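Q: Is it fine to ask for two folds in a single conversation?
A: Yes, each is treated on its own. Send the first.
Q: Here.
A: Result:
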Amino acid sequence: MDDLMAARATMAFSLGFHIIFAAIGMTMPFFMSVSHWLHLKKGDPVYLELTKMWMRGVAILFAVGAVSGTVLSFELGLLWPQFMEHAGPIIGMPFSWEGTAFFIEAVAIGLFLYGWGRMKPWVHWGTGLVVGISGFASGIFVVAANSWMNSPTGFDWEDGQASNIDPVAAMFNDAWLHQSIHMQVAALQAVGFAVAGVHAFLYLRGRNAKLNLTALKIAMAFGAVAALVQPLVGHFAGERVAHLQPAKLAAMEGHFKTTTYAPLTIGGIPDEESETMSWGLEIPGALSILAHRDPSAEVIGLDQFPKDDWPNVMVVHLAFQVMVAIGMLMAGLGLLYFWFLKKKTLPRWFLWALVAATPLGMIAIEAGWIVTEVGRQPWIIYEVFRTEEAVTPMPGMVYHFVLFLVLYLGLAAVTTWLFWRQIQNTQQKLESHG
């Protein structure tokens, strides 16, 4: 592994770790706020215990997310100094706004944690809601900065330097809307199903049926709706990628040859040498419809780009297929959930299906970010600045990667243990009180 790949691997692993906690931090406070609101309206102590259990989980995961996010900000400067030299003045605004949102989130979570019995109930509830709103806003600002890397605007590039910088235009670039919506809905979907799966498991194990069934229903109210909305959002994102990054779309679909009536390939293994797809199911004209809403529309293939400018087609295509397959499966589970909810029954086999689906949303998020990041390569700023030009000249990046790998795996193990212990302690407390 050379230093460029080691730096990319370090950044990829750090981002892949942090994004799980970012997704939870953006969405879990809303679940907590719903439970708290139901307690204030109905006075049911189960809602109070559920709120406090989720509150402790939010606090643990917020701390880990804050640490891993801070590391990412340092890595941008340490691993990619040339990128930050050029991009810093352009996308500094969304990063500064993200810092403001994070500060508000930190203050709000402190008020909510220590405000029990010290604040008026509805004011206290409001601080919990602010945790969710500020976390959601923080995610949007970060995605806006990333979307600029995929659709760079708000500056002129002359002789290797940026001039005439407009940070507002840079932030609200052509990719920010579809990337932001896609990410936020994915977070609601992934966390909703993950929380529902954990509580479905506890319910099936006979642990505090009322609390776990209540938690499952609150989580699925978010997760199932998001899962049904996501295919529409994904279609919108696909149309925008076809317009803004045709090479990325071609890699996603394994589409090597520019053609009209372009087929959509389900599954398949791309071969970059022969520029063919194997073992896939082709639907004639479907890619032209999805990309341009016209079965006869021309879809640009990888043959329109120099091979040096191709992303890794195998990685991008397979990651995209994983993301789409999981998304459709979760949409199906969402439909079944609402059907069973209407029938006022949740069969045990369906609950076990939710348990099995617990990690799927997070896997889909990771796959989606692989598509986004690897699909942009070899550019760190799309068609402006190449990744190899931005990497640090400092040698020994492999050792840096190994160190971070060990530290993050250890942090993940400790966090999982703390989170599960918190859930178990709450369950035991409720059972001991009847």
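Q: Second one now.
A: Result:
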Amino acid sequence: MTPRLALLMVTGAALLTACGGDNQDLRAWMAEQGKNVRGHLDPLPQLKPYEPFTYNAFDLPDPFKPRKIQPGKSDNKLAPDPNRRREPLEAYPLESLNMVGTLARGKTTYALIRTPEKDIYQVHIGNYLGQNYGVVTEISDSGVKLKELVQDGGGDWTERTSELQLQQPNNQGSRR
């Protein structure tokens, strides 16, 4: 037997002897803690019998399947003209556009609108901007008012007003 193997055996035996000691104090503490404990389990709840449900709404739209609402397919008088040529600022969401100033030429007032690419466009009353068919209805020194057309879940077109406010030099501007 090699001295290394003998040392390993002696060390192992010493460790096993230390782990196998009498843990009388631990056993006494456990007995004291469990003396007044009585287990109690609530009874299982009564199960209700399964009642099948018959789905009879096959002629209604499926609420879990997205529907594509197409412009111009509605009988609503507010529906936008799908054949109208789109203007450049209609490619951007209204939230991404900033009004940075106004410009007056003669009796016409223009609003200066900045895109996310930092391009500046001049718009006047009657121009379109935003992705909801927004038409400019009023331009003031403090903002641009729009009339937008949005489609509800039933496919009907409704009007809503929005405003693109003048961007202040110390913030990013705000919209309502």
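Q: Anything structural to flag on that second result?
A: Two points. The chain has two helices and seven strands. Helices lie at 3-19, 24-33.
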